[in-house]
Amino acid sequence: MRVLFAADGWEKWAPAISAACPEAELLQTAPPDSVDAIIYAPNGPGCDFAAYPSAKLVQGLWAGVDQIVPDSSLTQPLARMVEPGLERGMVEYCTGWALRLHLGMDRFAQDGVWRNDMAPPLATRRKVTVLGAGALGQAVARALAALDFDVATWSRSGEGAPGIPAFSGPEMEQALSRAEILIALLPDTPETRNILNAERLALLPRGASIINPGRGTLIDDAALLSALNSRYLRHAVLDVFRTEPLPPFDPYWSHPGVTVTPHIASETRVETAALVVAENLRRVMRGETPLHLVDRSKGY
Ligand code: NDP
User: Fold this and answer.
1) Integer Cα distance of 290 and 78 in angstroms
2) Residue 255 annotated in active site
3) Is the ipTM of this complex over 0.95?
4) Quick one: which of 17, 51, 133, 271 could link to 137 by a disulfide (CB 3.0–4.6 Å)?
5) Is the Cβ–Cβ distance between 38 and 70 less than 8 Å?
6) Transmembrane segments in this chain: where (predicted)?
7) Which residue's C-alpha comes closest to atom 5 of ligand 1?
8) Does any ligand 1 atom lie closer than 6 A to the CB of residue 13?
9) 108 CA to middle of ligand 1, Å?
């Protein structure tokens, strides 16, 4: 089986994928009609998918597919990356920031004043809602529940993690109105763009905080800044932005109610992801359906 590698990082990926799937011949260039599958990420050399009519799979190396889905040259099945290393990274990022916000740690880091009148409540009393209950949203919700947070998820279908309350699309108001900490793990699609607009942000309880490692397009930036300026919302931890890198004079950088992290919430880990790629290449060889196929009509 011939597999075209059209992504950045050949030096680290090639040995890992070859070790996990010795049957695959991994190539950086190949005669187009001889290619059985393409491994792809938008940070690579680019790819005109239409030139590879015999390819039965395009395997993405990233969880987000918003930069691939609109490509009209892509007619082959597209699989996105779901792998345990990426998942663990996102769990650590979200639980770390959720605990920091919950415990009000920044106050103690900055205050320099002896004020012991306000022990934070236990996590059982802290309501967290995770928007998006896919691979990452469910993993984060499970980890927060294991720390005893009062956690719920919201997704289009209402599917969520076993044992964790799950709201569906029309129940967004209930999902938001309980969220003292809101974590956004939705994909970027036409339906999710600006989903957190002024009206929806106003549904959050006063003093709520937001963690957004999903996509920058999920939030109406002007509405968020306005809610932070009026102190209606307490804090926003933002990892993703409409323009990345975040421009030097963007108001988010200097806003006291905002923590900017530079799109580092998590990333695909080669060691664990190579095993997922290998499994999908074998499925293609056996004529089976690959894992984690993207529904391009939905955009994720
Ligand atoms: P999944 O595709 O597994 O899950 C997507 C979730 O979003 C599903 O629960 C889906 O609901 C829900 N959803 C999508 N559209 C809507 C909608 N219109 N209304 C309500 N719910 C909706 O994605 P992952 O969990 O793997 O990843 C989520 C996102 O995280 C990625 O798309 C990417 O943008 C981001 N990400 C960010 C990283 C970072 O470092 N900052 C790293 C990796 C990913 P349903 O299933 O019911 O349709």
Assistant:
1) 9
2) no
3) yes
4) 133
5) no
6) none
7) 134
8) no
9) 34
What is the edge-to-edge ordering of all strands in the sheet holding 209-212? 166-168, 150-155, 127-131, 181-184, 209-212, 235-238, 258-260
Output the pTM of the full model.
0.97
Of 129, 155, 260, 292, the one to substitute when testing ligand 1's pocket (max ligand atoms within 8 A of C-beta) is: 155
Q: What is the CATH number of domain 86-260?
A: 3.40.50.720
The predicted-structure confidence for 64-80, as pLDDT tens digits, reads as follows 999 999 999 999 999 99
Two tokens, residue 20: 């996990």
The Å distance, Cα 68 to ligand 1 centre, comes to 15
Catalytic residue among 142, 215, 234, 235: 215
Determine the distance separating the centroid of ligand 1 and the alpha carbon of 300, expressed in angstroms: 7
